[in-house]
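Priority: medium. Attachment 1 of 2:
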């Protein structure tokens, strides 16, 4: 490949990473803007819940269909349309004059994010091979880790800049100039079609409906856990599982005569199946940490949104540094690297619990800086290597839909983890009569326990891989 072509690949990746950062940032950046939105628009609890959770809901619904569309018709078109819609809906959210307007904009914004993200992962599969693919996934992993963790800090800075009344609008407006540039560069730099002949099969509309319905039924009771008080909401989860089973049966039948929305044979790859499971469980513990830490610092200890964001920065820095390293060495070490990362994350969270014993009320951001840096370093060795290994054996024509299913698992895991850890946080707060430190420690231990389950899955993969290697060597001797 020529030097010009090589530079073009990395430039295309850079555009994709900027768009991914922008869309993933909006998962967490809005959390610190809630008080400002409430004052400015007179939004009620239900409105605020939908502003926060509606984005995650529609994000998760579009991932697999959008990935399949990119596989079939070229990732450039899907990427540019998705980023353009994200830019327009960001502007619409910033201009909102009522809670209903803002909720509608956030739902569309989440859908646009769901269109963009699988194209970035599919692009890496398409353009890079071998160690270069590991480096590219390392950069993507750093983007995921930093965007998730740095959202509260950037949100706090923007609200400080824009003022208490209307600072929240800048949380959305900041996407507009970045999005315009990403649209222009994306159209210029991204390849128009995937390698090989374009897949002109239709997009399996019944499969789209079944998958979308199943994911929505799973996510709704999780994201609306505080607003829907009836215990009957949890009945939607087994219904959602049944619908997803129907999706699997339909896809198996549909694959006999056409290209399905998602090829279930991918779950025959151990690397893909266990990697997706690790991602689902890890994100269940990983994203819940920032949710409860922000509540603890702002609502419990009275810190500003800016200080709360700064307190999370050590995790973001550690994640960024380790992600770049993990992407470079994952080909040599394999799944054991993910296991090491998970052990380090659990150790960092355990150290955080220890330094907060005695329920301190001052200096908490400083006390937690080193343990969270350690947890962030571990996280960087989990997200990037796991993503690289999970998609390593996926054929390029299926890269978008495979990445979409992987990220759908991450979104479901995030929603479930926040629901479980958040429920323990609030119940501990009530039972301890308002002891925020105790509530935070208890819920942080649950988050660490969830991450330990991901470690168990990683150890299963390592054990099976070594057993297969021994069998293969015995067969050759």
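Attachment 2 of 2:
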């Amino acid at each position: 490949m020529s030097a010009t072509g090589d530079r073009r690949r990395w430039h295309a990746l850079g555009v994709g990473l900027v768009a991914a950062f922008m869309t993933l940032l909006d998962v967490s950046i809005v959390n610190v803007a809630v008080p400002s939105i409430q004052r400015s628009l007179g939004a009620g609890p239900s409105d605020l819940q939908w502003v926060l959770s509606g984005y995650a809901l529609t994000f998760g619904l579009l991932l697999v269909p959008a990935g399949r569309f990119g596989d079939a018709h070229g990732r450039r078109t899907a990427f540019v349309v998705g980023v353009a819609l994200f830019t327009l809906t960001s502007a619409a959210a910033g201009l909102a004059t009522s809670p209903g307007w803002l909720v509608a904009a956030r739902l569309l914004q989440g859908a646009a994010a769901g269109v963009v993200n699988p194209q970035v992962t599919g692009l890496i599969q398409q353009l890079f091979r071998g160690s270069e693919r590991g480096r590219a996934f390392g950069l993507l992993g750093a983007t995921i880790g930093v965007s998730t963790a740095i959202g509260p800090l950037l949100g706090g800075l923007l609200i400080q800049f824009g003022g208490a009344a209307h600072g929240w609008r800048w949380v959305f407006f900041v996407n507009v100039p970045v999005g315009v540039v990403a649209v222009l560069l994306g159209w210029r730099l991204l390849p128009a079609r995937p390698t090989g002949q374009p897949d002109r099969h239709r997009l399996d509309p019944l499969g789209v409906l079944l998958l979308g319905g199943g994911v929505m039924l799973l996510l709704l009771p999780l994201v609306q856990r505080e607003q829907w008080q009836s215990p009957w909401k949890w009945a939607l989860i087994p219904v959602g599982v049944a619908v997803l089973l129907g999706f699997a049966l339909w896809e198996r039948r549909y694959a006999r005569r056409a290209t399905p929305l998602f090829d279930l044979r991918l779950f025959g790859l151990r690397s893909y199946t266990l990697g997706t499971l690790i991602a689902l469980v890890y994100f269940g513990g990983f994203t819940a940490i920032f949710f409860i830490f922000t509540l603890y610092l702002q609502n419990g200890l009275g810190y500003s949104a800016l200080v709360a964001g700064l307190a999370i920065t050590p995790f973001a820095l550690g994640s960024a540094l380790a992600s770049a390293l993990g992407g470079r060495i994952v080909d040599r070490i394999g799944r054991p690297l993910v296991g090491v990362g998970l052990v380090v994350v659990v150790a960092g969270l355990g150290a955080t619990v220890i330094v907060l014993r005695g329920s301190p009320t001052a200096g908490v951001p400083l006390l937690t800086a080193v343990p969270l840096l350690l947890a962030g370093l571990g996280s960087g060795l989990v997200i990037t290597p796991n993503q690289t290994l999970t998609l390593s054996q996926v054929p390029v024509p299926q890269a978008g839909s495979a990445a979409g299913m992987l990220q759908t698992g991450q979104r479901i895991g995030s929603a479930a983890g926040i629901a479980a850890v958040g429920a323990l946080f609030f119940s501990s707060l009530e039972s301890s009569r308002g002891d925020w430190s105790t509530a935070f420690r208890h819920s942080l231990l649950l988050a660490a326990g969830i991450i330990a389950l991901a470690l168990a899955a990683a150890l299963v993969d390592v054990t099976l891989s070594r057993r297969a290697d021994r069998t293969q060597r015995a067969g050759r001797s």
